[in-house]
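It would be a great kindness if you could assist me with a short task in structural biology. The matter concerns a single protein, recorded as an amino acid sequence and a row of backbone structure tokens. The record follows directly beneath this note:
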Amino acid sequence: MQYYKDKSGQILLTLIPGEKIMESVLKASEELGIVSAQVNGIGAVREPEIGVANIGKGYNTTVLPGVWELINVTGNVSKLNGKLQSHLHVALGGEDFVIRGGHLMEAEIAVTAEIFLTPLEKEIKRVDSPYVTGIKMWDLG
């Protein structure tokens, strides 16, 4: 993993084969002292695990076999119980040119990933949703 922080504060993160997206975004955020950030990027991944919310029961997940084009990864870094966490969603393209997507559980880099981290000055905290059981949401208070 390599990263570069430009004068505007934008962070460019490049990942190499074998590294993992969620793990790398958190590691870079911790090393750079980021308290919250916007995340987006592109690349190619292997064996991505994605999920969809099963309200009140967690996530229904699946691992997509093979290599997938990472059309987009987007989301944020925030804090849950004082600890950084990434909340990312993905759009993935397969050899059949059909797009799959959902909540990213984790994905290993197959070729590379080029990710932008945009740090935010406010520490965003996640809390249990008072509206939907089992879901975490931002508390901006």
User: Anything to note?
Assistant: The mean pLDDT is 95. The chain has one domain: 2-139. The two ends are 34 Å apart (CA to CA). The first strand starts at residue 2 and ends at 5.
